[in-house]
Amino acid sequence: YQKKRAISTSGVFSKELGSKLTREQFLKDGLARAIENKELSLSFQPIMASDNSEICAFEALLRWQKEDEHISPVEFIPIAEQHGFIRKIGTWVLNKACFVAASWPKPIAVSVNVSVSQLQSDDFITIVEEALLTSGLPADLLHLEITESVFSFDKDIMISRIKILQSRGIKVSIDDFGTEYSSLSVMQDLAVNTVKIDRSFVSRLDSSGLAIVQAVINIAHAFDYLVVAEGVETREQALALQKLGVHFSQGFYFSKPIPEHKVLQFIKKPCAKLTDDNAILTKV
Ligand code: C2E
Ligand code: MG
Ligand code: MG
Ligand code: MG
Fold first, then answer.
1. What is the pTM of this model?
2. Which among 35, 59, 77, 228 is the best mutation to test ligand 1's pocket, defined by most ligand atoms within 8 Å of the CB?
3. What is the top-level taxon of the source organism (predicted)?
């Protein structure tokens, strides 16, 4: 237990084994073999419709179990991006997510996070098309989540690539909306399908943040985007967001991310709490 603790807390790790670099090297080496070692898996978090609390989609979230340590994507995704592993890992995620979603008993979309460097690579569209083809998942059940940062690089190429994906029927969302710079003109050129309001706004709903959330939702409505709220943790937040015009909600209040093997069970029978709260949500 002592040993496990020492490696899971990066601070302790740094002190004992040198520097932050050591931890980064350790993760970098591990990432190089994570797929071959079958250490990666996906969890799926439901995205619920505000009006009837039905499951509309699941977001695929990458998990890395390295020996007895669970490493957070918040820590390892940036390292995978910096060291050139994200394209290979991203392709694995896309294929896995499409295969799992194609196996669900009813049409529910799967939403996959895509890093900038994946979208930058010239074969990205081919990779996506192959994942759809081999899994048999209909294109309109695949949603791709990108961040505003894609527009800091080759803006025109990014926009045209996104348009090609959309012409195939794939839906594109802007993740963590409002946390990075994106000009209103880019928003207009881009015409994504959905924006996901970052959970930092949702968590401030009860205090001074209400006006900001309303403003962000108004911008999204002005561009005709569907709006997903991320990080919904309480019933009060879910109700307030529905009143503000949010179409979909995602967060621990509805469900934490679910391991792949338990998703089917969740689709067939969402937890009792959800069904109870359902009634409350639909009455608003
Ligand atoms: P994200 O795409 O914004 O995903 C939402 C994150 O918020 C997830 O963290 C999820 O578990 C967490 N979350 C959901 N509901 C709640 C809530 O009610 N409260 C709180 N406190 N958190 C909530 P996770 O799984 O640790 O992923 C973190 C980030 O790592 C993701 O943020 C995404 O940026 C990145 N990521 C995860 N999987 C992938 C992937 O396959 N590819 C890429 N490129 N990035 C990924
Ligand atoms: Mg996301
Ligand atoms: Mg997000
Ligand atoms: Mg994110």
1. 0.90
2. 77
3. Bacteria
